[in-house]
Amino acid sequence: MLGFLQHPVVVTANVNLNLVVLTLMALLSRLWQLTYPRAVVFDEVYYGQYISFYMKRVFFLDGNGPPFGHMLLALGGYLGGFDGNFLWNRIGAEYSSNVPVWSLRLLPALAGALSVPMAYQIVWELRFSHCAAMGAALLMLIENALITQSRLMLLESVLILFNLLAVLSYLKFSNSQKHRPFSLRWWLWLMLTGVACACAIGIKYMGLFTYLLVLGVAAVHAWQLIGDRTLSNIMSSAFQASLEGGLARITQGQPLEVAYGSQVTLKNAFGKPVPCWLHSHQHFYPMIYENGRGSSHQQQVTCYPFKDVNNWWIVKDPGRHQLEVSSPPRPVRHGDVVQLVHGMTTRLLNTHDVAAPLSPHSQEVSCYIDYNVSMPAQNLWRLDIVNRESPADTWKTILSEVRFVHVNTSAILKLSGAHLPDWGFRQLEVVGEKLSRGYHESTVWNVEEHRYGKSQEQKERELELHSPIQVDISRNLSFMARFSELQWRMLTVRSDDSEHKYSSTPLDWVTLDTNIAYWLHPRTSAQIHLLGNVVIWASAGLATVLYALLFLWYLLRRRRKICDLPEDSWWRWVLAGVLCVGGWAVNYLPFFLMDKTLFLYHYLPALTFQILLLPVVLQHLSDHLCRSQLQRSFFSALVVAWYASACHVFNTLRPLTYGDKSLSASELKALRWKDSWDILIRKY
């Protein structure tokens, strides 16, 4: 009984040590001396006020964006025991002992640290090499501006984390779709994509653009899936009825069990080429088809892809004349023989040994008209509940998947999917499948709309069929209405847009013509500046331009039927560009349209996507443009030298990133932002 205890429990796991080391280094770079300086640094004076409001339960309206980011910072204060008692009125003010500085700065620091392994994962999920993934993570690790921003009580690092998480989750979801759709991993990454996008928007409204980017990529992938005829893309009636609004509004309150006298609409379960409902109308099959074959000239029966009163049918007991539900209702069960009466014309669903108009190997399905010729009615159908749980199962609205088996010929009512000619109004052909080839969704139907018929007279019944089933519209202000009003108020509240001495324009960010002095030590020359690593920024911009030129070159040559890249490599290159260049564009270009005070840190989310692109372009140059091994070796040496220069600049600017070293006047002059290229010139 306890035999399993005789052997040790062994767990085998694959651990990427490179990723572990990068994560530990990222945590060290962001968490080291996190409480220094113990003073209000730049925009901490702004965010701190809202944290105090939350701690003191004071109602306020933030006119600068959604509240989720402030709530996360306030969570750090709550966990650290902050009571909100601090006067946030001056940059550089010393924090009092009741302010948990480490706790307040912890979340942005963790977000900044986790962005490093996330960059690795994104490049890897784009199916580039481990070397390229390592390169992206290393650049995120040593970028000075990203380190500075993540070590303070600010929100850019949190926004970047959720932006990257949204992209990574979608890539993992997309790759799961190719291999194991609808698996647990598939659902996990799909839900995490939505959560990450929502969190990004909740941090700052700029997160909306990353959401739109992911949504656009998903739309393209969905379009490709729709064109894949091996996949079914139509949701079932049961799924649609489980959602609020739409079909749920129509089907709410319907009787569950179908009874004799029930009025129903029958939807085909196949859903291809479009979802449609069993339908008839007062038009007849032509006497002679275009190919010379004859028809029964009976009333047409089709499958119609729109809601219509002619989609209604009445379930009739063949042994009775009643067309209304008795009291109590008599439910229809698996194996029962029924007749289906078309609600608006009172003609019965029929099939006989006449070839269907477009499927000559199947039987024509019609609503029977008695022409007093030697063609008697054959309108009895046996109900076959495919998903029954017992032989006596009742026919249920929406839930039951049923087949109608013709009693006389054993043909099964089936949607062929072919479009009828103009005489059939381009509606879909319905046939009787004479040879049963096993279960197929085209032969399966389910009741979507259902009500108990109350009228025996035809005119009263027509009025009943024309009337809506149920209309239930709440007059109360809905949650979405309240939510929309709050968002609109936050968007339209004007904030202080006065000029700031460290404000800048979007063009200044790309040309590195700006920086921000975040903090100055009151007694020494130690200080913190928001400074970017000049090698990384310049190279990232160059990589973006180079990618655009290469993409256009490849596109033009492919137009001429010249494929420089294998198909798999081409689509990998395209997807990397859409996400990385697109991510940069949607997080940068909108600032040109904004009438607000802008700072260098607004560029950091866009820069992150450029950093992801940089090793992708480097690998592409090595793999596809370096023809010989000698060229590849020389190119690799250049890349190593370039990484070394980026590391050197990081180390040189380190005193202004952490602010933990007093600098002389000459040292400060040497680190002036516009002279930062001199660092490299003197070194190399």
Automatic annotation (TrEMBL):
Entry function: Transfers mannosyl residues to the hydroxyl group of serine or threonine residues. Coexpression of both POMT1 and POMT2 is necessary for enzyme activity, expression of either POMT1 or POMT2 alone is insufficient. Essentially dedicated to O-mannosylation of alpha-DAG1 and few other proteins but not of cadherins and protocaherins.
Transmembrane segments: 6-28, 58-79, 99-116, 153-171, 183-203, 209-226, 530-555, 570-593, 600-621, 633-653
MIR domain span: 255-318, 329-386, 393-450
Pathway assignment: Protein modification; protein glycosylation
Family per record: Belongs to the glycosyltransferase 39 family.
Lineage summary: Eukaryota, Metazoa, Chordata, Craniata, Vertebrata
Annotated catalysed reactions: a di-trans,poly-cis-dolichyl beta-D-mannosyl phosphate + L-threonyl-[protein] = 3-O-(alpha-D-mannosyl)-L-threonyl-[protein] + a di-trans,poly-cis-dolichyl phosphate + H(+); a di-trans,poly-cis-dolichyl beta-D-mannosyl phosphate + L-seryl-[protein] = 3-O-(alpha-D-mannosyl)-L-seryl-[protein] + a di-trans,poly-cis-dolichyl phosphate + H(+)
Annotated EC: 2.4.1.109
Source taxon at top rank: Eukaryota
A GO CC annotation given for this chain: endoplasmic reticulum membrane
Record-linked CDD domains: beta-trefoil_MIR_POMT1
Compartments, record wording: Endoplasmic reticulum membrane
SUPFAM superfamilies: MIR domain
Name this protein carries in UniProt: Dolichyl-phosphate-mannose--protein mannosyltransferase
Listed GO MF terms: dolichyl-phosphate-mannose-protein mannosyltransferase activity
Classification via Gene3D superfamilies: 2.80.10.50
Natural source organism: Rhinolophus ferrumequinum
Main location: endoplasmic reticulum
Nucleotidyltransferase in keyword set: no
Membrane topology, as annotated: Multi-pass membrane protein
InterPro entries per UniProt: ArnT-like_N, MIR_dom_sf, MIR_motif, PMT-like, PMT_4TMC
